[in-house]
Automatic annotation (TrEMBL):
Keywords: NAD, Oxidoreductase, Tricarboxylic acid cycle. It is an enzyme of class 1 (oxidoreductase). Its EC number is 1.1.1.37. It comes from the Bacteria. Residues 6-154 form the Lactate/malate dehydrogenase N-terminal domain. The active site is at H189 (proton acceptor). This is Malate dehydrogenase. It holds the Pfam family Ldh_1_N.
Length: 327
């Protein structure tokens, strides 16, 4: 059998953690033949640690054949030790009366510390996925705080937005989600993101030949995908958890095991293509193979798309400027 991979998960006692850990332990993220060790981080707070212990008791009670160990941590320097994969889910949510600027600042402190810890103790090829919001900027901060690790290994989660867009397009076109390829969500994981189906195919046919409805694109598709997080909170009274965990699994599984030639969306540090300044963590189409991703290049960007892509970029640059003095 293969040697176990170490998967660190932060915010492990939170609601996404609860929807995520059991699926990782069941082999849904790294493969049904891949043993795993879970290294779980929570804040030192007594209640959080007690809740984390309860989650571990339930993991124990599943007797997962692939789960070779689980440890609880309150310090990122022990949680990230030798980690092969790090899922940074825990973050400070916006509290009452908190400005966006304050949110950026408290999270910058968390992700600076976690980036440094990854830099010092994780596997030299650790693959990092940031889920905790503001995800792109948190990933940027962690990347900047880990100069000894490859920047390309720091990614942010746009996959939930990608999956949401797949379902909206499938419903409009009357096809199965599995028949859609080449969908993209550009930019920031925020309502400014730009879901783009100009290159998509439906069962091999250009999506634009089936769904040629500019009004639907502008006034239904883009806002529905962009505001889906808020719609879930409104309906459930809680933010997306199972679908977020599912997207995290999709993201890491495809990154490590490959996307079989299909396009998937990942937030990755820009290499300068599409006019996105180098290093900005931006959602782009990628194809993954053998543990690496390659950005799909040279797609034509029309005037409407340029405008949308610059709009979401502007927000990311503002977030970056807001934390510059802390890095
Ligand atoms: P919860 O509040 O249920 O859980 C978060 C957990 O993280 C808590 O148990 C908390 O104690 C812990 N935590 C906070 N700071 C920590 C730190 N410094 N180290 C370790 N643990 C820490 O939130 P949940 O619903 O699980 O959501 C987690 C994050 O995902 C939030 O920031 C949320 O905004 C973000 N999301 C991101 C999505 C995306 O697509 N990128 C979608 C879903 C979700 O909204």
């Amino acid at each position: 059998t293969k040697p176990a991979l170490r998967v660190a998960v932060t915010g492990a006692a939170g609601q996404i953690g609860y929807a995520l850990l059991f699926r990782i332990a069941a082999g849904e993220m790294l493969g049904k033949d891949q043993p795993v060790i879970l290294q779980l981080l929570e804040i030192p707070d007594e209640k959080a640690q007690k809740a984390l212990n309860g989650v571990i008791m339930e993991l124990d009670d599943c007797a997962f054949p692939l789960l070779q160990g689980v440890t609880a941590h309150s310090d990122p320097r022990t949680a990230f030790k030798d980690a092969d994969v790090a899922l940074l889910v825990g973050a400070r949510p916006r509290g009452p009366g908190m400005e966006r600027k304050d949110l950026l600042t408290v999270n910058a402190q968390i992700f600076t510390a976690q980036g440094k810890a990854l830099n010092d103790v994780a596997s030299r090829n650790v693959k990092v996925l940031v889920v905790g919001n503001p995800a792109n900027t948190n990933a940027y901060i962690a990347m900047k705080s880990a100069p000894d690790l490859p920047s390309r290994n720091f990614t942010a989660m746009l996959r939930l937005d990608h999956n949401r867009a797949l379902t909206q397009l499938a419903a409009k076109a009357g096809v199965a989600v599995s028949e859609i390829e080449k969908l993209i969500v550009w930019g920031n994981h925020s309502p400014t993101m730009y879901p783009d189906f100009r290159f998509a195919t439906l069962a091999g046919k250009p999506a634009l030949s089936v769904v040629n409805d500019d009004d639907w694109n502008r006034n239904v598709f883009i806002p529905t995908v962009g505001k889906r997080g808020a719609a879930i909170i409104d309906a459930r009274g809680l933010s997306s958890a199972a679908s977020a965990a599912n997207a995290a699994i999709d993201h890491v599984r495809d990154w490590i095991l490959g996307s079989n030639g299909k396009w998937v969306t990942m937030g990755v540090p820009s290499d300068g293509s599409y006019g996105i300044p180098e290093g900005v963590i931006y959602g782009v189409p990628v194809i993954t193979k053998n543990g690496e991703y390659a950005v799909v290049k040279d797609l034509e960007i029309d005037a409407f798309s340029r405008e949308r892509m610059d709009f979401t970029l502007k927000e990311l640059l503002e977030e970056r400027d807001g934390v510059k003095h802390l890095l």
